[in-house]
Amino acid sequence: MKTAIYILIYFFSSPAFSQTISETDISKLAVRVSQQMKGVDIGDGVKAKGCISLERTLIYQYEVPDYWEAPNNIKEEIISNLKTAGVANTYFLENIDVEFYYYKGNSLTKKVSVKSNEFSTFDFTLGEYLSIKDHPKAKEVNLKLKVPVGWEVKEGDRPNVVKKFVKDANTYLITIKNNVTFFSRKQMRESLQEDNYVKEFVQEVSSVLKNPQVIDQSIVTIDRYPAVQFKIKGGMENSGLTIPIIMRCWVVFYEDKIILLQAGGIDNPEFRALEQLYFLITNSVIFPEQYN
Amino acid sequence: MRKYFYTDGVNKFGPFSKDELKSQKITRSTKVWYFGLEHWTELNKINELNDIFVAIPPELKPLNTPFIKQIELPENNFLVKPIQVQLKTKKSKLSKYVIGIVVLIVISFVVIRLVQKQSEANLYKEIVANSYEADEKFDIYVEKFYRDLEVYGIFPKKPKTTIIKLSRLDQLDNTTHIHGLSFGHNDDSRIEIYINPSSWKQFTRPMRYFLMYHELSHDVLNLDDLDIKLENEGKLMYPEISSYEMKSMDDFIESFHSLFEQHAKNE
Hints:
Chain A is an alpha+beta fold. Chain A is built from seven helices and 13 strands. In chain A, a hairpin with a 2-residue loop joins β3 (97-104) and β4 (107-114). The longest helix of chain B has 40 residues, at 90-129. Residues 62-85 of chain B have low confidence and may be disordered.
């Protein structure tokens, strides 16, 4: 039922550095799309009725003939076709849900709802564990974590960067530095109660950015070790061009080491989409020594 | 009228009448003789001179020296037969015993120390002879130890000589502390530690840290082992580290922090 799932796609190009579009933008988009598609015969007796928006949902409406019946796999076909057309990723990155309404006369005969994350073209599958045990830059830290499928594992270029996972302009770095002395988990949790103590670490990581801005910050636990989790953004000057950078970081306090897990990229919707993957990677971290 | 003679043991004096004898420098034990008496006889044994004897006060007893105690026994209402008993003071006897015991202890101590020293020297030679370089990076523990001391404001001089080797301590005689031995105790010119390879292999990571910081505390801070008491269990200087199998790195960290903090206060 090719005609049944055929839709008019009118969208806009998403500049690389743009922010997520607002609900107002979505509403304006719906009006423009509606104007363009209204009354268009898209074949097999199916006509476009229009497009409306509700918050962050775009609703495409169609008039179908009486003999029309929705195929069983209509949702899968719609997602597949949109991915092929290259617009699925935009829905995903812009966090726009899409619904398709099929009418016979005035009665709604079929409704298909697709959440934005169902349009994702990113693979959030994690692969095998990577261990940094005995790595020359690991400073005796025994840590392992899962590498996302499709990402390349590289050696760190800088002195304290042990490994990095890379895909396009996105990176996930594992950096290990020495702390001033050993701290037990209990001692460190107590220290992290002090805002100034936490601030120091956040500021140190932020110092690589121009006009850094802390978006969020919290104390978390990573495989039973205390950590500071935060998101920062700012500019990074390169060859005269300042690129907006955003980073999701975890500073883990492990014995007498500071482990920085740092995911970063250009401040665009792609980073926000990938943030979920970064959480998954960090969530896979294991410090095996404590279980020996 | 009877004439009396007396002697001081060297010279004899007399003759004296009984009245004249009374005024002489005689004592109750002065020997007296008169014609008709077979031997020189002590004054107190001559009945007819009893009135002189009674008039002479007894001799003074010197303090802390043997003296003659005279016990006078009545005989027909007269004190006629003094009995001489040789006695020593209790205090004097006690002093001799104490001195004897002290001398014995000192001699025993010296002998034991000599034997111990010889034994230690032999043990040291044996340990050194059987020692060998390890693949382990023991210097990392030393670096961390000094780093952590500095955090507590303790700055011991770092010796130029650092020897940390493996040696089969469990195959030696006369050793009780078989996991590690420090020979740099009270010697700031060197760190010298020998680790038992079988212990090292068997030990968990926290136990290895416990052992290394324990031996380094002996060696660098000159600290002694704690007594094997329940209250000391878990502390860094507790000697039975082999019982620390369930200890974590957190236990080790808090244990050495506590020791260093105390040591810094004492300094």
